[in-house]
Design goal:
Blueprint: E1 6-15, E2 18-28, E3 33-37, H1 44-51, E4 57-64, E5 67-68, H2 74-79, E6 82-85, H3 97-103, H4 108-111, H5 114-124, H6 126-130, H7 141-153, E7 159-163, H8 171-186, E8 190-195, H9 198-204, E9 207-212, E10 215-221, H10 222-227, H11 229-234
Parallel strand pairs: 3-8, 3-9, 6-7, 7-8
Antiparallel strand pairs: 1-2, 1-4, 4-5, 9-10
Helix pairs in contact: 3-7
Bound molecules: adenosine-5'-diphosphate and magnesium ion.
């Protein structure tokens, strides 16, 4: 067995005294797409924020490449190879597309040849190349999502966390984002994806976990969960 890129062990977190994630455990295997599915308010974003070091753990551990990163700050985690593409894109609206990308590469691991990396991003997302001088706040939702993903990739992550990347996007843009996720994964990027679009997610995910009320309620391969009666009833409307 190859060791996991990420091992989440009994993670608890929340806001102040309010616990939202009640002891979640799962692994992310290298080269795979691991998905967290669950409805609105299940705790996916809270979990993602804790993995990225933006919310403190109240219990449990996060191990990345065998190193305990549970108490590392978010910038140290980026340097360790973890990049979060946050829910709601969160691009810098008053900076240009190119400036947003440049900021994705300010960690030491990404500083060498950031220009070359930006060219790679422009090949992956030609739309961003056309709009590189445009202010990010003036892009469409789908274009902002491309920019948010590209900004995350600028740090040359070994693990990309994508938090609800298709939320609020038109169906054609959502499809493009799912195609991009598959393409990135085929090029070797390990991905942890949280989503509410269960059907499309289970199609691309190698492994998936259902998050309900801050706990993992079911786990399996994408296909196993797509066939599971509870998932079919509660998440696929079948
Ligand atoms: N900043 C916050 N302060 C307090 N509670 C929050 C905050 N953000 C989210 N929550 C609560 O945490 C729960 C989980 O939310 P969230 O992690 O965003 O779920 P999901 O991403 O699965 O939709 C919800 O009940 C939500 O109201
Ligand atoms: Mg969310």
């Amino acid at each position: 067995m190859t060791p996991p890129v990420l091992s989440v062990q009994g993670l608890k977190t929340g806001y102040g005294v309010m616990t939202i994630v009640h002891g979640v455990s799962f692994d992310v295997a290298p080269g795979r797409i691991t998905a967290l599915i669950g409805g609105n308010g299940a705790g996916k974003t809270t979990l993602m924020l804790a993995l990225a070091g933006l919310l403190p753990l109240t219990a449990g551990r996060v191990i990345m490449h065998g190193v305990d990163i549970s108490h590392q700050r978010s910038n140290q985690r980026v340097q360790a190879g973890l990049a979060l593409v946050p829910e709601g894109r969160k691009v810098f609206p008053t900076l240009s597309v190119a400036e947003n990308l440049r900021l994705g590469a300010i960690v030491p691991r990404a500083q060498a040849d950031w220009q070359g990396r930006m060219e790679e991003m422009f090949e992956l997302f030609p739309r961003l190349k056309e709009r590189q001088r445009q202010l990010a706040g003036t892009l469409s939702g789908g274009e902002q999502q491309m920019l948010a993903i590209a900004r995350g990739l600028m740090s040359r992550p070994s693990l990309l966390l994508l938090d609800e990347p298709t939320l609020g996007l038109a169906p054609i843009m959502a499809k493009f984002v799912f195609d991009t996720i598959s393409r990135l994964n085929e090029s070797g990027v390990t991905i942890l994806l949280s989503e509410q679009d269960t059907r499309s997610t289970l199609r691309v995910a190698h492994e998936a976990h259902v998050i309900e009320n801050g706990r993992v309620s079911l786990s399996g391969s994408g296909q196993e969960l797509a066939d599971h009666p509870r998932v079919r009833q509660a998440y696929l409307g079948l």
